[in-house]
């Protein structure tokens, strides 16, 4: 949706776009959902009809070369990161720093670790390329029922094209907040697996404050066990191309997830997030709330939200929404919510999307009370984004993000 577009809203059920079959794979089945193959050159293939049926593989050779016409890549500037989808990646260890925290261990483990591959598998070539090359995975393991917090920082990755793998495991009944802080230069494709045991309560924050030239492609796979709760937060402020795609499978009865996103795109930036929530167990609950702002020529954001309520997920309660605030001409925000329901026994399910400019009534209200137009605009933007910031649950990080948003707003009225 272009910056010049008027406010648009979507609350209807949609069907995800067909995906391109991978080389050597069987992603498409001739009789799926009763749909038959066409006789006009489809060569026996029927498009995938359900989000969970997408092809998955850890072998990069199983995926065709990325052209930008594929469903998962058609919104992305694929020419800017061809080295991450087709090139050789450095899968060796890299330098990390972590704050000390009781009952949380941070260590490197071999790729033979039993936890690897249990939360999810790659559905596209960049993720498979990273999966194919990593030597060791960074494992963050949470124990103990007392609440604690840890920050793991990467800031010296450099410009080498890299592949990486991270495991975050919350043992049964444990509680923690894990902040993944990304800074400096990077050309990185990575997979992050998040595993929650029974009744675990885990918050994972992925914070992208990269340098202006950085490229970061990330896929987060989460499996949430019985009565466990995952809060997953994506904050994207820095970088040239940043694409963080979380996929959450609510695998245990009573599992719960809250997925939050905050992004601010400046001139020339591409910030993308493709969110997938799979309700695969009864009485599961999900809420998705992503909010972003755009300013400057060719600022671009993409949000795709897929929710699948499976046939085993009786009693599901689900809702997703995406809101975008356009601050200048020359920007583009794509917002695509999708909802699939395979059982009629649900508590509720819905989705919404909106992209628009400032609310003139809000600006008039503030100006009528002696506030300048420039400050009024900043107050509106801060209020719009603060809703997400305040739900993170890490006071020091929340305060720092408020300052970062303020820094992004400097110069807004000149663009």
TrEMBL record:
SUPFAM superfamilies named in the record: Stabilizer of iron transporter SufD (SSF101960)
A Pfam family: SUFBD_core
Biased composition (Low complexity): 1-13
Sequence ranges assigned to domain SUF system FeS cluster assembly SufBD core in this UniProt record: 161-384
GO biological process: iron-sulfur cluster assembly
Domain of life: Bacteria
Annotated coiled-coil segments of the chain: none
Region (Disordered): 1-42
Annotated family: Belongs to the iron-sulfur cluster assembly SufBD family.
Official protein name in the record: Fe-S cluster assembly protein SufD
Species per Swiss-Prot/TrEMBL record: Cryobacterium ruanii
């Amino acid at each position: 949706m272009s910056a010049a577009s008027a406010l648009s809203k979507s609350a209807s059920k949609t069907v995800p776009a067909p995906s391109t079959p991978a080389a050597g794979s069987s992603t498409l089945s001739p009789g799926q959902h009763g749909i038959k193959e066409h006789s006009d050159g489809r060569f026996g293939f029927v498009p995938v009809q359900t989000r969970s049926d997408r092809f998955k593989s850890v072998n990069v050779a199983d995926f065709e070369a990325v052209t930008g016409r594929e469903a998962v890549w058609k919104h992305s500037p694929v020419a800017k990161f061809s080295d991450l989808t087709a090139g050789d990646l450095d899968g060796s260890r890299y330098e990390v720093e972590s704050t000390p925290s009781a009952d949380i261990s941070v260590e490197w483990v071999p790729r033979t670790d039993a936890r690897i591959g249990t939360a999810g598998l790659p559905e596209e070539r960049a993720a498979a390329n990273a999966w194919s090359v990593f030597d060791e995975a960074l494992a963050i393991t949470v124990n103990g029922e007392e609440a604690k917090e840890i920050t793991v920082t990467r800031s010296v990755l450099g410009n080498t094209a890299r592949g990486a793998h991270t495991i975050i495991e919350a043992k049964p009944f444990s509680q923690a907040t894990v902040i993944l802080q990304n800074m400096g230069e990077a050309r990185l494709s990575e997979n992050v697996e998040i595993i929650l045991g029974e009744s675990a309560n885990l918050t994972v924050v992925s914070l992208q404050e990269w340098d202006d030239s950085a490229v970061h492609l990330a896929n987060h796979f989460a499996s949430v066990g019985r009565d466990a709760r995952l809060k997953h937060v994506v904050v994207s402020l820095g970088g040239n191309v940043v694409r963080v795609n979380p996929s959450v499978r609510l695998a245990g009865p009573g599992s719960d997830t809250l997925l939050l996103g905050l992004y601010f795109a400046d001139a020339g930036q591409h910030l993308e997030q493709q969110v997938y929530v799979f309700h695969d167990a009864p009485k599961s609950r999900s809420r998705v709330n992503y909010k972003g702002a755009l300013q400057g020529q060719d600022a671009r954001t993409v949000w795709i939200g897929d929710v699948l309520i499976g046939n085993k997920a009786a009693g599901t309660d689900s809702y997703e929404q995406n809101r975008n605030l356009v601050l200048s001409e020359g920007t583009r925000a794509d917002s695509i919510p999708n909802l699939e329901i395979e059982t009629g026994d649900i508590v509720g399910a819905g989705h919404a999307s909106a992209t628009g400019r400032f609310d003139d009534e809000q600006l008039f209200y503030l100006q009528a009370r002696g506030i300048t137009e420039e400050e009024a605009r900043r107050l509106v933007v801060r209020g719009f984004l603060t809703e997400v910031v305040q739900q993170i649950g890490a006071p020091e990080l929340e305060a720092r993000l408020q300052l970062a948003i303020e820094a992004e707003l400097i110069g807004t009225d000149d663009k």
